[in-house]
Predict the structure.
Amino acid sequence: MPTGPSEGVAVADVQAGSCRIDDCWLVTEETAGRRRETVAEEVPVALIYNGTPFAVMLATPADLDDFGRGFSLTEGVVGSLADIESIAVVPVSRGIEVRVAIGADWALALATRKRALAGRTGCGLCGVDQFSEALRPVARVTAPLVVAPAAVRRAIAELPGLQALNQRVGAVHAAAFADASGRILALREDVGRHNALDKLIGALPALGIDPAEGFVMVSSRCSYEMVHKTAAAGIGLIAAVSAPTSLAVGLAAKANVALLGFARDGRFTVYAGAERIAGADLHE
């Protein structure tokens, strides 16, 4: 199994995502000693569209341009990444602003939503006060992706060794994109699982990666929102290290997304979209 970032894999910025705490104590049954520790950095990140604040998320301050692109797409602020005119990441006194310029029509549509989202770490639904907004519809994924079980197992095996920031701080989630053979091509990390997925989705175009030609592997549980973001990006399969929720399974079936849970130790459970997993025994 890999022990660090592999050559050619687009991973998160480790140094930008961590900071040093000098005055810590390690206590054991025998001794107590002072030591330095490295922890995951977490800061308020404001998403601002055409000068108007829209959301404040708590996130890891790395790859925030990717975060701005991915969040804009998966939250329905724009219809496609091509609708984003520019992004600027600007440190301010109390956090970081991600200033996104979008077309006038998209800005007008955004203003009518009247949504002010002040979230806990990576919470994509905090602040939503209507069921219709929380359970937004998403188009069915048309990608013809089918993967072999061996491809999923390959991604499972590669994921831990590519989580460079988590190896350093032990407190962040990862979202990775693998091709149909299971080879991981890109990975992003964040203290919030939604944030990590948004960063990954936002990074794919610049890396020349077609979302329709591979799948997502995440180091967390899989909620409704994680499936929604995956489908919004046109990705046909999401595999999660931990369990899915009932809403996630239902949405995956409706959106034509294969949902795999407990993807670890060389095994996984298929909760939806079995037709995307090669093997006749899954379809009987």
